[in-house]
Amino acid sequence: MLLTIGSPMATKMPFPQAAFLNHLELLEKSSPLAANAALSPSLAHILFASDETVTLTKSAGCLIELLKARQATLQAAFDRELAADELRRYQKFAKPGQPSAHTVQLRQKQASARQASSQSKQSFIKVAAAFVREAGIEIPQRVALEEFITHWIDANVPKDFSQ
After folding, report:
1. The total number of structural domains that make up the chain
2. Structural domain range at position 69
3. pLDDT, tens digit (0-9, with 9 covering 90-100), for 147-156
């Protein structure tokens, strides 16, 4: 019989670009009041059509998906670490021999968190490739796509975004 442990992975990790992601989703739904925000010229070039309207480009849709995938990746990594810490805490005082039902359940929780982390990382790389291709961003040689796009997000997407 397995014991029930509180709600699985209940802790949410804060996402630095959450406000900007919400802003883009509002723009995608064509909310005119959301278009008055100040953006860097390079980001505005990627997001908006060349005419003076607030029409989002296809790469803006890819950026929305990229930010959602990044958020999922960060949350999955956080959940994986949380499960590993919890398992370490209980294994520290475990008696030798057959593991308890609680330890088995924690190992299962850790395995599912590890699998979710791998899946979110794969989807992040897939969406990142689509975004880079659509936006026409050049990736330097010998730099991994994941590393490049993570630095690109940190450098170009506003963290503290207010409309």
Report:
1. 1
2. 18-156
3. 999 999 888 8
